[in-house]
Design goal:
The complex is a heterodimer of chains A (246) and B (267). Chain A is of the alpha/beta class. Chain A is 38% helix and 25% strand. The two termini of chain B are 35 Å apart. Classes of the chains: A alpha/beta (246), B mainly alpha (267).
Chain lengths: 246, 267
């Protein structure tokens, strides 16, 4: 049996009285591209913050390749590449300096880092901008650098929290295609959080998160079947309404 | 993760701090100019008001500018320590703190690396000040430039750790300004930076006691003695102890499960 790349079980989290996540369980296999679909405030960022240990975990478990994040946090972080919703590049540093900094944080030497940076920056088509300050890049280009950065330490799991927010259509498509290709060719598992339904696409596995609970989990076709909706958008609206009516 | 990984991480964090410092030329300028303003204006004006008798480590009567030089060096270290922590608050608001915190190295190490990186920048600024201060005839013996290094490092660590602790407790950049006012100015004025403590004792015994307890006084005194090749053991012990306490509290503050970050996220 394959060990899931990422597995959460009965995950819960509160902000004071407000429940942000409740009994969330799902797992992702290596090489799988999974969309975590939810409106703003559905609990996606909370889930990411728990998975990256920015918030302390209370209820439930999070496992990365079988390792419990509370027991082996550092080993888990080593396997993880993360793109946060909030831009996290140092704008006063060049693209390359940002990437070297990330490599250093993962204990890589400059000699090890240089070829990896060359490969990843080439892959996102920004080789010629490597010496430019991050501030000089467009929003879409910065995102590409962040994805390149997340891959430098060769993680086996990629977590992306709303990576396409504020980007134009072509940048969005580029990022989506890029990450899907990484899953297909490099066997990377990816959890792609978004509130944009069209990013789910055909064939992708979709986990619908609403008000901190998993409302549906499966292939786009299965979700359409379950909700008897003609489109994924309609299915999503049905699922969200179901919850509101409940 | 082996020791070499820790070292690479430390170098990476220090390099980033250095690059950021170079990018912020205003910061370099103000870091060196601020104490020079004190030296050029305050010291000149006050040398006729405040008499400085012969006190160790000085062997003779000294001009006031020489007396306040160690205090001004400590001021550079303090401002830089606070600016490093300001950058932590900024990083947290801007998100780049997350990049640091998801490194697979332990959080205490990441914070210590950040602290050491800040101290490297501080120490270089202190030497830049000492070089310019030669114009005001602040000329410690040649070996003083070497013996002062450990004192600068230890003082820088203490003030940087204090800054880290403050940054773990501060939620927003705006709050930071008021904390700066309530920390920097009281620490600076209630110390031996501007006047010898025997002067303070004559004026107020309570203030004298406060000055004695103020770790900034110990930073100033350690630097003052070290500039003349002498060691001030009480100050050294006081600095080591306060650094350890501040750093431990800062690590606690940055622990998502326990410290202030946990409380913040709960709000």
């Amino acid at each position: 049996m394959t060990v899931p790349a990422f597995a959460v079980e009965k995950l819960g989290h509160r902000f004071g009285q407000r429940r942000a996540l409740s009994g969330v369980s799902f797992s992702i296999d290596p090489g799988e591209f999974t969309v975590l679909l939810g409106l703003n405030g559905a609990g996606k960022t909370t889930l990411f913050s728990l998975a990256t240990r920015l918030y302390a975990q209370g209820e439930g478990t999070i496992r990365v390749f079988g390792m419990d994040i509370q027991r082996q946090p550092l080993e888990c972080l080593q396997q993880m590449g993360v793109v946060f919703q909030q831009p996290t590049l140092d704008l006063d540093l060049s693209v390359e300096q940002n990437l070297y900094y990330h490599c250093a944080l993962h204990g890589l030497s400059r000699r090890e880092a240089a070829p990896r940076i060359a490969v990843e920056i080439e892959r996102v088509g920004l080789s010629e901008r490597r010496r430019d300050k991050a501030r000089q890049l467009s929003g879409g280009q910065r995102r590409r650098v962040e994805i390149a950065r997340a891959l430098l330490h060769h993680p086996r799991l990629l977590l992306l929290d709303e990576p396409t927010v504020g980007l134009d259509i072509s940048s969005r498509q580029f990022l989506l295609d890029h990450v899907r290709q990484l899953c297909r060719e490099a066997g990377l598992a990816a959890l792609w959080a978004t509130h944009l339904i069209d990013e789910a696409g055909e064939g992708a596995r979709v986990i619908v998160l609403h008000r901190g609970e998993v409302r549906a989990d499966g292939g786009a076709a299965a979700i359409l079947g379950r909700t008897q909706a003609p489109t994924l958008r309609a299915a999503f609206e049905t699922l969200v309404e179901e919850r509101a009516a409940a | 993760m082996r020791p070499i990984h820790y070292l690479r991480c430390l170098i990476g964090v220090a390099l980033r701090e250095w690059l950021r410092f170079l990018n912020q030329r205003g910061r370099l300028f103000s870091a060196v100019v601020r104490p020079l303003v004190w030296l050029a204006i305050f010291a000149t004006g006050f040398q006729f008001v405040l008499g400085v008798s012969i006190i160790p480590p000085y062997e003779t009567y000294i001009p006031y500018s020489i007396y306040i030089a160690p205090g001004l060096i400590a001021m550079i270290l303090m401002f830089n320590g606070m600016l490093t922590s300001l950058s932590m608050v900024y990083d947290r608001e801007m998100g780049s703190m997350r990049v640091l915190m998801i490194s697979p190295l332990p959080r205490w190490f990441l914070l210590t690396a950040k602290l050491i990186a800040g101290v490297v920048v501080s120490v270089l600024q202190a030497y830049a000040f000492l070089a310019i201060a030669l114009i005001w005839e602040i000329e410690p013996p040649w070996y003083g430039y070497i013996t002062v290094l450990p004192a600068l490092i230890l003082s820088g660590l203490m003030l940087g750790a204090l800054g880290l602790l403050l940054s773990s407790a501060i939620r927003q950049l705006e709050n930071f300004a008021s904390v700066m006012n309530f920390v920097i100015f009281p620490m600076f004025f209630a110390s031996s930076a501007l006047y010898p403590l025997w002067h303070v004792k004559e004026a107020s015994l309570l203030l004298y006691r406060i000055c004695q307890l103020n770790p900034f006084t110990h930073a100033v005194e350690l630097i003052r003695f070290a500039l003349y090749g002498q060691f001030e053991p009480i100050s050294a012990v006081a600095l080591v102890a306060t650094t350890a306490v501040f750093l431990a509290l800062a690590v606690y503050g940055y622990d998502p499960a326990k410290g202030l970050m946990a409380r913040r996220t709960a709000e």
